[in-house]
Amino acid sequence: MPRAREMELQLPPLHRGQRAIFEDAHRFRAVAAGRRFGKTKLGALMCFAVAAQAGRAWWVAPTFGIAQIGWRMMRQLAAQVPGVAIRESERMITLPTGGTVQIKSADNPDSLRGEGLDFVVLDECAFLKEETWTEVLRPALADRKGGALFISTPKGRNWFWQIHQRANYDADWRAFHFTSYDNPFIDPAELEATRQQLPERVYQQEIEAQFLESAGVFRNIAACM
What we know:
Blueprint: H1 16-23, E1 28-33, H2 39-51, E2 56-61, H3 64-78, E3 85-87, E4 92-94, E5 100-105, E6 119-123, H4 130-140, E7 147-152, H5 159-166, E8 173-178, H6 188-197, H7 200-206, H8 221-224
Parallel strand pairs: 1-7, 1-8, 2-5, 2-6, 6-7
Antiparallel strand pairs: 3-4, 4-5
Helix pairs in contact: 1-2, 2-3
């Protein structure tokens, strides 16, 4: 089995904000970021970095549809690796090192039980049930002392806000905050046009990634992007 350092994996470049998160050494990283910041790309690359070291990484999303977005990114990265195995039915990628990346949906949190993990990405975790983390995924990291990346736009001040605040007092945690403007590949004029179309509170949450005290019900967001 080849060692991880013998693999030549051409990873797509990261912008400045993504790289700050990728290179951070904290075990748990909570990232509140606006739409189109590049959260999916970042999480995918971090999963592959773990698998390249023969580790086991999971990508967990609130629904099957959101999980498919991560899966498409994973397949694109895997396609360039000689000897990689891609199992579509299991949404699982095995690198030549023996490391794996697997995409999971949290529709039924109990279905995630049983595996020991080196790393997990909780995608749009503000929309996950809190027990998916506390009762299922956090214990799965215990035996390997694995790490986690929490990526999401905010949804009021729910449990994602609470873990984002945890970095203030827990040395294992680091919190990051980025707006959509922090992605240099997005034309700022497009975001300003979005500001004109969205209600102010929706704009503050979805673009500026603000934790609002009362999220309300935001509808037709995607149609305005």
